[in-house]
Amino acid sequence: MMRLKVASSLLMAEYIQADVQEWNQQPVDLLVACIDDSSGQQVLREANLKGLPVLAVTRKVLSGLSVPGVAYGASVRDIFQQLRQLLLESDRSGERFKPRTLFRSLADAQGKPSVLHMGLVKVLIDAAQTRVTLLRDLPYENCLNAAAEPGWTLSLLGNAGAVDEALADAVSTHAFEDFCWQAAVLSPEPLLEQQTAGLYQLRGWPEVETGKLPMQWLLPMAAMMIRPWQSGQLALATGTSLDDIARIMAAAACTGLLDGSGSQAVGQRPAGNKVSGFFTRIAKRFGLNFSKGLQV
Hints:
The protein is of the alpha+beta class and about 300 residues long. About 35% of the residues lie in helices and about 15% in strands.
């Protein structure tokens, strides 16, 4: 029972709130039962009738079980992995169990300054989400890597005094766009789930430290500055993988730079004008001509 409770507490890192209690026919998401005796077998039959997932605990050979199981005396890690898999599989929406990364946690910021904490990493993000202040003396890259990991907690700062108190531990301050885009580069998955079926473009170029964006991202990003694109068309036109396109769009969504209206953005260059400066250099780097717009 102690190992089961510890394993359940570890589910918090996966944004799963688990409460272990004795089953008295109340509604539950998962049953854990020792099935080596008659009472356990009865619980298993009742669970099957109710369509409840079951994690069996047994001294018998696991390969002979008809349901997922762990050996009696299994480690906390083994129990945790089984609980996580069963709960994820039983949830059809997938919404409840998305890992609580820094970026998902910000959805609860309610337009207020907030302190976010995970392990040794602690940051303050202002109400407008324009600046990130590191509150622990750790390398910036460590914080960037941690941002897409699960297990973040968020605390809202209700007044200026609370903000000043938090800033007393400030180590360094960075542009929120730089933080998000560099975290997106380091994360193998998109920072947020983003629909990519529509037409999308960039409202502006992100404020990112020079040289930190991957070379293969520059061309699709430049193309998205010119006009809206569907993700598949953009990938085909620029020779970029769909995974990279998804990561770019998610980073843009995190920083408010993604325009999904499908219409040419305000300030967009007319189709007949030449694109100069930075975009021209990108075009030359990839052997393309933007003077008439990037064609599919």
